[in-house]
TrEMBL record:
PROSITE patterns: NUDIX (PS51462), NUDIX_BOX (PS00893). GO terms for molecular function: ADP-ribose diphosphatase activity; NAD binding; NADH pyrophosphatase activity. Gene3D superfamilies: 3.40.630.30, Nucleoside Triphosphate Pyrophosphohydrolase. SUPFAM superfamilies: Nudix (SSF55811). This is Nudix hydrolase domain-containing protein. The lineage of its organism: Eukaryota, Viridiplantae, Streptophyta, Embryophyta, Tracheophyta. Belongs to the Nudix hydrolase family. Keywords: Hydrolase.
Length: 319
């Protein structure tokens, strides 16, 4: 179980990784102010007013009346004011670890205030903000990122799919392939993958022509859908029957004449932009690989084809 607990003396936190109940797995957790504990942290300056606590002693963190003692794991303070458990001093058995963890959780909950922060496969993080005022911890991810892939061939046919699992009101709609971007996946890679997975068509990325920003979508999260245009590199369709009911190359006139696209303002606007981009009447954002000195890593910057980018725009922007 993972926790973050800022101290009342600074915006510090207590962090712990995956909650594997095993004597060989590293687990760390936070201690609420006012606790008394055996085998305390080697260094707890954020809680003890700068005092270093020696290993193996009992120590009170504050003058608050104490209800009892709990066993906690040996830990140290990291460079960010966080407390990390020493993995070499874990209990010898999973039962001992489980017992210590459960009693600690019970004690912390009695002190009140732990709330869920976020969860990932393998762990959940709870937080408890000690200072007065609203919590200052950054929120977890607030948005889901998706891609929509507009693929149009030289015959003016659009690659469209019919979802296999969708509400009845949209069951007969032919739409462009869409899906969520995977973790650590680039936008253009996600669009290419979704087209391949749903239709079997290989394609190459051209540009991002628009994005839709909406709120309270799936899992009550905000959602950004990036609309990408792609060039088909193959033509034979092979659908993923677990997701897609059908896929086909549809004449663009037939695609835009569907009642849904005629009546839905968002769909009509996206389709018009994509068709304009295909006919070179609209310029989207291309992906450029750029190195940043801030984090010493390569990332993709999506930009339009401006005169400045092609060296045709003077640096004197006032002219």
């Amino acid at each position: 179980m993972a926790f973050v607990v800022p101290s009342s003396y600074s915006k510090s936190y207590l962090s712990l990784p995956h909650p594997r109940i095993s004597s060989t797995k590293q687990v760390s957790f936070g201690i609420a102010a006012g606790s008394v504990f055996r085998q305390p942290c080697l260094k707890l300056s954020i809680f003890s007013g700068g005092k270093t606590l020696s290993k193996g002693t009992n120590a009170a963190i504050s003058d608050t009346p104490l209800l009892g003692t709990i066993d906690v794991l040996d830990a140290f303070e990291d460079d960010y004011g966080g407390i990390v458990v020493n993995s070499t001093s874990l209990p010898n058995t999973s039962n001992a670890f489980s017992s210590s963890l459960q009693s600690s959780l019970c004690y912390w909950n009695k002190q009140a205030g732990f709330v869920y922060h976020h969860a990932e496969p393998g762990y959940v993080m709870l937080t408890f903000w000690l200072p007065d005022g609203p919590p200052g911890l950054p929120s977890t991810s607030l948005h889901q990122i998706g891609v929509g892939a507009f693929v149009m061939n030289d015959k003016n046919e659009v690659l469209v799919v019919k979802e296999g699992k969708c509400p009845s009101h949209c069951s007969d709609i032919w739409k462009i392939p869409t899906g969520f971007v995977d973790k650590f996946e680039d936008l253009f890679s996600g669009a290419i993958r979704e087209v391949r997975e749903e239709t079997g068509i290989e394609s190459c990325f051209l540009d991002v022509v628009a994005f839709r920003h909406a709120h309270q979508v799936l899992f009550d999260k905000s959602d950004i859908l990036f609309i990408c245009t792609l060039k088909p590199l193959s033509s034979d369709i092979s659908i993923d029957e677990s997701e897609i009911e059908a896929a086909r190359w549809m004449p663009v006139e037939e695609f835009v004449s569907q009642p849904f696209h005629q009546e839905d303002e968002m769909s009509r606007a996206i389709t018009d932009i994509c068709i304009s981009a295909h006919h070179k009447c609209y310029a989207g954002l291309a992906a450029h690989q750029v190195m940043s000195m801030l984090d010493n890593r390569v990332a993709y910057l999506y930009t339009g084809d401006t005169r400045e980018a092609t060296g045709m725009c003077p640096r004197d922007y006032k002219s």
